[in-house]
Amino acid sequence: MAPLKVGDSLPEGVKFEWAPITDADPTACGRPQEYDASKEWAGKKVVLVSVPGAFTPGCQAHHLPPYIQKLGELKSKGVDVVAVIASNDSWVMNAWGKVNGVKGDDILFLSDTKTFFSKNYGWAAGMGDRNGRWAMVFDNGKVTYAENESNPGQVTVSGAEEVLAKL
Known about the structure:
Layout: E1 15-18, E2 33-36, H1 37-40, E3 45-50, H2 57-69, H3 71-76, E4 81-86, H4 90-99, E5 108-111, H5 117-120, E6 134-139, E7 142-148, H6 160-166
Parallel strand pairs: 3-4, 4-5
Antiparallel strand pairs: 1-2, 1-5, 3-6, 6-7
C-alpha cells in the first residue's frame, strides 16, 4: 500500500500497542494495552513521528530530544498529541520515554509491532522489520504534512523544527 499523503484521511482501525507511563522507573512497566489511534485522534491535531528504533544512536541523540524540548511550542501551535512509533515492543517504548524524562502522556511512545502502520500507511526503512524515519501531521483526521527521510540516518524533514515550521 502507498504511504499516506497530504489530503488523505487517517484510516479506520489504526491501532498500536501501548504501555502508559505511570511512574519514572524505567525498570518497571505496566501491562501493554491497545491504543486505538483512529478513535483517540478523531478531531485532534496529531504529530506522528516514526523512528527506526528506540535507543538507537540517531533516534536517541538527534530525533527524539528536539520533540521533547519543543513540546510546549508544538502545543502552542494547537497540537493535541505527539506520538512516537517504532517497531520495538511497548515495554521498550515505555522505558525509552522514561529514560528521556517524559511523564504521563506528554508524548506517547507507541509500539508499531501489531498493526504495521509503517508498512501499510507510512514508510518502512528497508532495514527488515524496522520503521522508517518520517513524520506526519493529522489535523481533524486529515494528513496535512507527510515527509520521509531520504536517508534514515538523517533527521531533516521529520525533525521537530521542520514539523513546527509547517504547523
